[in-house]
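Obj: model holo form, ligand = adenosine-5'-diphosphate.
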Amino acid sequence: MDLSELASLRSAPVAPAAHVIDGERRFASDTATLEVISPIDGQVLTTMPRGTADDAKAAISAARRAFDDGRWSDLAPAARKAVLLRWADLIEANALEIAVLGVRNNGTEIGMALKAEPLSAAATIRYYAEAADKVLGEIAPTSPATLALVHREPAGVVGAIVPWNFPLMIGAWKLGPALAAGCTVVLKPAETASLTLLRIAELALEAGLPAGVLNVVTGEGSVVGATIAESHDVDVLVFTGSGATGRQLLEASARSNLKRVYLELGGKSPNIVFADAPDLDEAAKVSAHGIFRNSGQVCIAGSRILVERSIHDAFVDKLAAVASAMTVGDPLDPSTGAGAINSLRQLEQNLRFVEEARQAGRRIVTGGKRILEDTGGYYMAPTIVADVHPDDRLAREEVFGPVLAILPFDSEDEAVAIANDTDYGLASAVWTSNLSRAHRMIRRIKAGIVHVNTYGGADLTVPLGGVKQSGNGHDKSLHAFDKYFDLKTAWIKL
Ligand code: ADP
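Output (holo structure tokens):
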């Protein structure tokens, strides 16, 4: 992609953002705003509405009306497809502008942001648009005296609450299948990454998405998010974020209308390196990127590396070499390997984990500190902590930052035991050239994905979802549709 416009885009003024509700831009009902701070330099980038409960309710009512009158749900699937394909094209045509806006908002390095944000969102929307008119109902194998049909009907109004690390990628994982299925949506972006989702909602209108079908309301989770979660007019709630919030959403569902709740929560994903890995240099390089890209702000980050003891020290040296060579800094410089931490709060949380490990006598192999403080931005050196114990907080809790915990193991059984000794079950990896061992590990590791001799990069064709406290339900692949359809049986006596 031609990046020549980067320089002008990075300093372009950003107009005050507005909700997108019922097909129009709206400010908060009480006109309150939140400052949008750029993690690149800690400066105010713009403002956005500090949404009120009334704003959320207006968006939910708009989505309810839009669903119930069939302006979207009753279109032929091929007609929905045409609108969604136009939307994907518009996102792609404006990819650089959107990516730069997103980077200024959330700090992800531009190389990754371009691919993982607008371009990935466009690809996801396209994938589900293309599938919209290929989802079939069923005729059940009943006796000839009956005709039984199983219809798939759009589930209704979807509430989507998304995080700040990859707002467009994760947002599109929800929006693509929900809209293709014929649902309408109220989306609540994270406080520190709302601008690009507002931008693509405006592009959706330009593409011909009818008013009220996609509404985006910004503001605090405890106000806007909670209003969506408590609403009796929201039929399905989809969420990516922390376990603590996930729990609140389930409670809100139980208190209100028992809406279905799908949660994609965190992980403490084990990345297991056996001495017989095919190429230890490659394993070190890919594993380091598997934790340090986007400064570890990745739900599937391989944040625990388990290393077979016979190669432990040599492998830690290799990891340290990759980590120290990573350029951390200005996320709008295309040569940057890892950009900024999303917020000061997150940076401070990362540093607390490191400090605790230091005080417990764990070995800080590299990094461990805030850097580039004179920029005003929030940067942290890629950090490797060795000699971590399986019951350390660093081995059990998600940091969501560039902090890698390393634990040694002696046998396959021990590796499995350490890997599974966690509340989470999102991602994992195994590095080995022993095919039988690879398959044994795939069976034994309790996680939604097991990578073998790689980390990350699984494309749209496969589901992403966790087990245990990493959540339920799946994003990506055709399985994602299950969340947004209801099954209805027609039992017809002939
Ligand atoms: P993180 O700690 O990574 O920011 P959160 O779970 O707090 O993760 O945030 C993910 C999303 O959930 C954000 O959009 C946030 O605004 C929203 N959120 C936070 N608290 C609540 C809540 N009580 N109800 C609904 N949504 C919430």
